[in-house]
Amino acid sequence: MSQVKYWDCWDPVAPVELAGCSSVGDPQGDSTVRFLGYCPQEDALWPSLTVRQHLEVFAAVKGLRDADAVVAITRLVDTFKLREQLDAPVQKLRAGASRKLCFMLSILGNAPVLLLDEPSTGMDPVGQQQMWQMIQTAIKNTEKGALLITHHLAEAEAVCDRVAIMVSGRLRCVGSIQHLKSRLGQAYVLELKVRETARVALVHAEILKLFPQAMRQERNSSFLTYKLPMADAHPLAQAFHKLEAVKHNFDLEEYSLSQCTLEKVLVELSKEQEVGNLDEEADTTKRWRLLSHPDDA
């Protein structure tokens, strides 16, 4: 027998204000439509309507005059190279083209607030670059803003002024890209590839001898990864001199020493969260109870 867990939902008790317009007295939010552009994670499109029809409908909803709508639609279609598909039904578009259309609908009308949920998923690299440039152009040196949700760290680095990283539903850090790198990535990443797997243990011992504070992150057959605190790696010239000696003495295939990237910061936070989740599972002081259904009372 299966049981259903559910929670009651209540209407918000406080008004929502967007661009100076309050939801009080306007429960449908009609007055705020033109202030908000939204690109959902899943394509919210009408399968039988064409690309042109989608753009015209959204332009009308956002209050664009006919002449302004034609100019805006033409610019978007040309930017994303969808002119040949302008009169094609959405159901015949490829995933990448559908995603481009969703983004175009969100930015149409020059809304001051953009909510973009995984907007570039399924796009080709050229389309992604075009979208990033359009976001930057839309909000640069203005009072406009965009909230971008993405799993692509390259996208966050290309578009965002500030980044918030969430791991397992928990907000772990907020700040500029450089701030997060300097605060959470205060280390170098050393990667080694050993030709002979039998020498992996010897290489590991040598690395710990040369860099006493080195922390091994991964070991996969002949591939070793370490985190080196900055104090252990500086001066860099000396660090590279040591690594060249290791490469020669232990016949390494290759090695690299690089600064911690945003992607590596996220990986580290994810690993910390996994450890935290294991600790929570082992905590026997917590008690969980199933929410009862009203019909069971």
From TrEMBL:
Residues 34-120 form the ABC transporter domain. Pfam families: ABC_tran (PF00005), R1_ABCA1 (PF23321). Coiled coil: none annotated. One of its GO terms (molecular function) is ATP hydrolysis activity. It is found in: Membrane. The keyword Lipid metabolism does not apply. Residues 185-259 form the ABCA1-4-like C-terminal R2 regulatory domain. GO terms for cellular component: membrane. It is a multi-pass membrane protein. Its main location: membrane. The keyword Nucleotide-binding applies. Keywords: ATP-binding, Membrane, Nucleotide-binding, Translocase, Transmembrane, Transmembrane helix, Transport. Belongs to the ABC transporter superfamily. ABCA family. This is ATP binding cassette subfamily A member 10.
